[in-house]
Amino acid sequence: MPRVHHFAALLFAVTAAAWAQQAPQKLEPLPEPPPPPQGMELDNEVEQQVTIGKKGEDTVEEFRANGQLYMIKVTPPHGVPYYLYDDIGNGDFTRRDAQDSGIRVPKWVIKRW
Description:
The protein is an alpha+beta fold. The protein has one helix at residues 2-21; strands at 49-55, 58-65, 68-75, 82-85, 94-96. The chain has a 5-stranded antiparallel beta sheet with strand order 1-2-3-4-5, with no helix packed on it. It is extended and about 75 Å long. The N and C termini lie far apart (75 Å).
């Protein structure tokens, strides 16, 4: 049993020393980034848009691309989020408890009209 106490004390000392070294020194703010090059301005219609709101006690994040809603992330008060996906683009959402389903099905759009 004394070895366990010595090991615990050593582990505590090493952890405390590591935390002490992580204290930040003289922090300075980063400079503002330069503007984008000519012709590379952002197009708000093409960029992904995220809207965050509350529905009851749940936090709801809506993700849109080209103005179309394709994913909703719902975070309940207990903190375990789930996702609603519109895989086809027809407005029918399916629930997934994680973003990675493990299935890799190609979803190419060949033609829209």
